[in-house]
Specification:
single chain; mainly beta; 5-stranded antiparallel β-sheet
Length: 343
Amino acid sequence: MLTIGVGEGAEEYELYDVIGALRVRNGEIAVACRGTNQIRFFDAGGTYLRAVGREGGGPGEFKIMFSMWRMGPDSLAVFEYGNARVSVLGDDGGFGRTVHFDQVPGRPTPIPVGPFADGSFLGRAHMIGYEEPLSEGVHRGTVLFVRWSGVGELLDTEVSRPDGERYHRPLDGRPMMGGPPFGRQFGVVQSAEGWYYGSADRFEIEYLSPEGELQRIIRRGVDNRPVTPDLRGEWLRQARERWARMPAPVLEWRLTMPFPETMPAHESDMATDEDGNLWVPEYKIPTEQPSWAVFDPDGRFLGIVDTPANGFVTDIGSDFILGVWQDELEVEQVKMYRLIKGN
């Protein structure tokens, strides 16, 4: 339906390190470019309108953009990792306010996951939580979820869940950790009235209230796919290419990590759409088409949706999917696709 972005051309259409794209209330497209510390606005046909922001720490300035969300009917919220804050803007880009979050005593600084409808925020902090001394093998630490008020005040919600998998085996007498083959990584996404968490051990997604109370578990009756000899061989082939310049002992360490018997149940980048439906990306290998299992707000399975490869989804409406994809020359482009639903 729409393509924004060129490899060579007018500067305002050259996109660099896009971390988010949203369709706002009036149909305009807001594109957050970390490479230029700007939010660029385009009309519904993809024509450039204006840009806001520059690098810095003042109002309306950005440093290392991390994520962008829609906040209420007429605002955008941008989390800047470099400034450790959220900037709230009008949907025209006008600066509104800054939110600085309270620290969690004795814990790492949480990263915002996104806002709820009441203006409060869900955050996550990665805790180590391994036994000492750490034994050789695959381990999962703990991720702590917290809630802040709309002005950044820490509320009393703290919920712990398994973090992503890490493989540990000493190398030359020193601790060494890395992501294992087909490792399980948790997924989390907030919606208007709650949030979802999945460990990827099995296809079970928890739905919790903003206060962290478990409301229901969404299950899909499918088994995790087996890790076959062909998949192991392909993973090793790609690993040798990806890490070819590593020192030989480190490369050997990575190539001898153990394989699990099955793949994760799902990918980590879950999403919600404007109708409150949950989108769970099915786990895939790089050569496969991305596909999503979609559930309504009550947890009923609606069906499978395929999306294009070589990109990521940033916004889902009732009849469209917006995201960032690369063309054959690896040029970043924001594209909108029509969402076709069955009966």
